């Protein structure tokens, strides 16, 4: 067990290093290198997830946990959510390498991948607890607020307008469900870590909107967007270690 924990710590440190390396390359405006390092950075949160699965299987073998602690359906759904994120990252990383005319198509492809990912995360939470009314309330309120903000700031969404607002509803549906589950479980460690990841994911997308739709590509905006996103995925991946 000690060896597995050491491996998890090492892989987590490697993941943070790869993420920092990717962000550095991204802000320096080297799209081809950025695509490569983004793939590594995004794969790293799946690697962290895989090491945790190995650790839990080791605990199962040693009789320190039972099969129920593996929560196989929930774990599988979270893995599928992470994989969807990886695919979305790779699609969006193609944007600087393609003709600007393809921007909308690439953005929509990324939105679809991340939307599917949020549905997987939402489904995982639904297996753990009942539907929370907070999820529906938050989805409606936040999508309305984002719509009003987009009008106020003059976002240019083009063909991505409907996918964007559908995506907004889905991510805040997931955040609301994560919050509801955390309240229901009195903020258990799993629910708290997952909730932190869900909130960071939403914050990341709120920062991304003006980058994509208002041309606000200041370095600080890019750094904040990427930092919050990768922290979100790492938190979600790590949360499965604490499912009871």
SSE blueprint:
Elements: H1 2-27, H2 31-61, H3 72-93, H4 103-128, H5 133-153, H6 161-184, H7 189-213, H8 219-239
Helix pairs in contact: 1-2, 1-8, 2-3, 2-8, 3-4, 4-6, 5-6, 6-7, 7-8
How would you characterize this protein structure?
- This protein is mainly alpha-helical and 244 residues long.
- The protein has one domain.
- It is built from eight helices and no strands.
- Helix 1 runs antiparallel to helix 8, helix 2 packs antiparallel against helix 3 and helix 2 runs parallel beside helix 8.
- It is globular and about 55 Å long.
- 39% of the residues are buried.
- The mean pLDDT is 92.
Structural class: mainly alpha
Low-confidence stretches: none
The average pLDDT score comes to 92
Order of helices and strands: HHHHHHHH
How many helices? The count is 8
Span between termini: 18 Å
Percentage of residues in DSSP E strands: under 5%
Task: Please give the largest β-sheet.
Answer: none
Shape: globular
Helix content: over 70%
Number of domains: 1
Kindly provide the radius of gyration, computed on alpha-carbon positions and rounded to a whole number of angstroms.
Answer: 18 Å
Number of strands: 0
Q: What labels describe this entry?
A:
80% helix; 244 residues
């Amino acid at each position: 067990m000690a060896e597995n924990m050491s491996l998890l710590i090492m892989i987590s440190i490697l993941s943070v290093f790869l993420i920092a390396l990717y962000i550095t390359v991204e802000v320096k405006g080297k799209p081809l290198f950025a695509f490569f390092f983004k793939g590594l950075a995004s794969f790293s949160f799946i690697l962290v997830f895989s090491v945790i699965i190995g650790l839990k299987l080791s605990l199962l073998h040693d009789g320190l946990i039972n099969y129920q602690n593996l929560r196989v359906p929930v774990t599988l759904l979270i893995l599928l959510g992470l994989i969807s994120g990886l695919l979305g990252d790779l699609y969006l990383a193609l944007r600087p390498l393609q003709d600007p005319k393809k921007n909308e198509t690439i953005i929509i492809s990324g939105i679809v991948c991340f939307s599917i990912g949020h549905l997987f995360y939402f489904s995982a939470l639904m297996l753990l607890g009942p539907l929370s009314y907070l999820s529906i309330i938050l989805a409606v309120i936040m999508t309305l607020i984002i719509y009003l903000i987009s009008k106020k700031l003059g976002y240019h969404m083009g063909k991505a307008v409907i996918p964007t607002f559908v995506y907004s509803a889905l991510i805040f549906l997931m955040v609301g469900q994560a919050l509801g589950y955390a309240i229901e479980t009195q903020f258990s460690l799993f629910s708290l870590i997952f909730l932190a990841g869900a909130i960071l994911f939403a914050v990341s997308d709120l920062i991304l909107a003006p980058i994509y739709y208002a041309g606000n590509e200041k370095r600080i905006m890019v750094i904040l967007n990427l930092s919050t996103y990768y922290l979100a995925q790492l938190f979600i991946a790590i949360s499965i270690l604490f499912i009871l």
